[in-house]
Design brief:
The protein is α/β, with parallel strands linked by helices and 221 residues long. It has a single domain (31-219), classed as Vaccinia Virus protein VP39 (Rossmann fold, 3-Layer(aba) Sandwich). It has 8 helices and 11 strands. The chain has helices at 34-43, 67-73, 92-99, 103-107, 110-117, 137-143, 167-175, 190-198; strands at 11-14, 18-21, 26-27, 56-61, 80-86, 122-125, 128-134, 148-153, 177-185, 202-207, 214-219. It has an 8-stranded mixed β-sheet with strand order 6-7-5-4-8-9-11-10, with helices on both faces.
């Protein structure tokens, strides 16, 4: 499968290194060390890599620059599946520029960037089999036939991108989560936590990364 370019997200660059979506007026990663935030929120928030076993399936809302995927690839040699839902894919050259800010991630990114530059949305990076599903998650997630063991909820902020944090989307996340599966997200917005709880997750607020006081994580019973 190859991606279409008609819906690619326009961006500007803050301080020359941080991509900011002009559509959502929000940066693609934290100004306070995005790679460290990824590790704290999404990896530690889902108790990874401790839970990884062959075939473990991670799903993500908001692929962005692929930073979460690359952070995962740096900590595991376990065969893992990774599915990400992205409405506005970035061109490979912009992703490469953004990743220069994170030498560790950039050092393992070449297989991804090569595939992405060819328009491929299915590729392998180390032990991780990746599929990026392009389109509006309100449609693509509902049609997805799989269930994830862990979710990275990493869309633009709920205030800027409310559609991706609606009760309907978060119920679909729960519906597409395996028993005892988990989620983690940087946001601690009350309506997001309530919607996740209503969807069936046991939700907790945890210390956030850097200057961010709180984040959210949880599991299905």
């Amino acid at each position: 499968m190859t991606m279409t370019t008609s819906s690619q997200s326009a961006l500007t660059w803050q301080d020359g290194v941080i991509p900011v979506s002009t559509r959502f007026d929000d940066p693609y990663f934290s100004k306070n060390d995005g790679l460290a935030e990824t590790r704290h929120v999404f990896l530690e928030g889902n108790d990874l890599p401790a839970r990884l076993t062959p075939g473990f399936h991670i799903a993500e809302l908001g692929f962005g620059t692929g930073l979460n995927l690359l952070a995962l690839s740096l900590i595991t040699k376990t065969p893992t599946r990774f599915t990400s839902f992205e409405a506005f894919p970035l061109p490979a050259q912009d992703i490469a520029r953004a990743l220069e800010h994170f030498p560790q991630a950039r050092a393992v990114a070449e297989p991804f960037l090569t595939a992405w530059g060819k328009g491929q949305t299915k590729f392998q990076i180390g032990p991780i089999a990746v599929e990026v599903i392009i389109g509006d998650a309100r449609d693509t997630l509902a049609a997805w036939p799989h269930k994830a063991d862990a979710w990275f909820l990493d869309g633009f902020s709920p205030a800027k991108n409310p559609e991706l944090w609606s009760p309907e989307i978060l119920h679909e996340v729960a519906r597409h989560t395996a028993p005892h599966g988990s989620f983690a997200t940087y946001t601690a917005a009350g309506h997001v936590r309530r919607s996740l709880a209503d969807a069936g997750f046991q939700v907790e607020r945890r210390p956030g990364h850097g200057k961010k006081r709180h984040m959210s994580a949880g599991r299905l019973p």
